[in-house]
Amino acid sequence: QVQLVESGGGLVQAGDSLRLSCTASGRTFRMYGMGWFRQTPGKQREFVAAITWSGVSTYYADSVKGRFTISRDNAKNAVYLQMNSLKLEDSAVYYCAADGRLKVRSGSGNYAENYDYWGQGTQVTVSS
Q1: For 54, how many CA atoms within 13 A lie in the half-sphere containing its CB?
Q2: How confident is the model over 40-67, as pLDDT tens digits?
Q3: Contact status, residue 118 vs residue 95, Cβ threshold 8 Å
Q4: What is the rounded CA–CA span in Å between residue 6 and residue 94?
Q5: pLDDT of 79 higher than 80
Q6: Helix (H), strand (E), coil (C) string for the chain
């Protein structure tokens, strides 16, 4: 069992940066691939980024590539999402998720159904 808690969301202006954090309980955190997703009202949860358990491989949605960076610190049971050059369309609730079935490593970490545990989400609002 893994419990995930996101933090770092808030209200920022377009062009600003924000860093989201996700901390996990459990001693086996380092065994999980991790992902970030986001969701706006009335829309499906959208893949943002993913990272393998080792941190060697990362994956990004085209909409955030070059602006967002996912990283992890297994010693701290944490995964991060550094968001730069934020745009209005980045506004959403951001969720972190843990994959215990090596889906991220196999290249299918962009599907929400491939994750086993989810956090409660943190709101990011980008204003003009």
Answers
A1: 4
A2: 999 999 999 999 999 999 999 999 999 9
A3: yes
A4: 8
A5: yes
A6: CCCEEEECCEEEECCCCEEEEEEECCCCHHHCEEEEEEECCCCCCEEEEEECCCCCCEEECCCCCCCEEEEEEHHHCEEEEEECCCCHHHCEEEEEEEECCCCCCCCCCCCHHHCCEECCCEEEEEEC
Q: Distance between CA atoms of 10 and 98, rounded to whole angstroms?
A: 23
pLDDT at 128 over 90: yes
d(C-alpha 128, C-alpha 117), whole Å:
34
Cβ–Cβ < 8 Å for 124, 40: no
Contact 60, 77 (CB under 8 A): no
Residue 27 confidence (pLDDT) above 90 = no
Taking the C-alpha atoms of residue 22 and residue 119, their distance in angstroms, rounded to an integer, is: 8
